């Protein structure tokens, strides 16, 4: 026997950003609260808030696949385990003054300040990674910007050393 409720359930489109939503519970990122920012090739390059979030609240749970190696879109859970999440938290932009904190023990995202609709979610990659998949020049333009971003246990590579020499020259009064 078919009911209207069953018909709606069968045709409902999941609004969860993760493709494996049926196995997840509540609290995971939805397209109602977050938007995946795409580049011109249609590849995800950021996450934008669609709703406002208060400071110091959990705004989402995260998920993904546990890997033994570092890759683009992974977050370090331990020295030998990385969470691959190319759907949500692996797309957060970097900022030297981030607006979210990833609690990788409980797999939660917390707002560090008020987040307004339209704002990109940003984290400090050095807070979660011993060594980055790839070092890069920072684009955050914050007053406390470090210029070249590495993991917290990592030295500047040759490209980073050259960049920082030029960056320091530009910063001199």
UniProtKB/TrEMBL annotation:
Name of the protein in its database record: SET domain-containing protein-lysine N-methyltransferase
Record-annotated SET domain positions: 32-126
Pfam families: SET
Keyword S-adenosyl-L-methionine: yes
Gene3D superfamilies registered for this protein in UniProt: SET domain
Family matches, as InterPro entries: Flavunoidine_N-MTase (IPR053201), Post-SET_dom (IPR003616), SET_dom (IPR001214), SET_dom_sf (IPR046341)
Domain Post-SET: 134-150
Keywords, sorted A to Z: S-adenosyl-L-methionine, Transferase
């Amino acid at each position: 026997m078919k009911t209207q409720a069953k018909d709606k359930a069968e045709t409902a489109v999941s609004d969860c950003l993760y493709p494996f939503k049926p196995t997840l519970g509540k609290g995971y990122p939805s397209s109602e609260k977050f938007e995946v920012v795409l580049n011109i090739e249609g590849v995800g390059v950021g996450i934008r808030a669609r709703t406002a979030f208060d400071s110091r609240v959990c705004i989402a749970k995260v998920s993904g696949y546990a890997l033994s190696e570092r890759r683009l879109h992974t977050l370090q859970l331990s020295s030998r385990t990385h969470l691959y999440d190319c759907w949500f938290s692996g797309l957060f932009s970097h900022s030297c003054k981030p607006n979210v904190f990833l609690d990788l023990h409980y797999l939660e995202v917390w707002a560090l300040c008020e987040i307004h609709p339209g704002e990109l979610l940003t984290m400090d990659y050095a807070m979660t990674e011993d060594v980055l998949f790839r070092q890069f020049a920072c684009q955050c333009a914050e007053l406390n910007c470090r210029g070249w971003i590495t993991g917290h246990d990592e030295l500047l590579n040759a490209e980073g050393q050259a960049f920082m020499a030029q960056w320091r020259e530009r910063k001199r009064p």
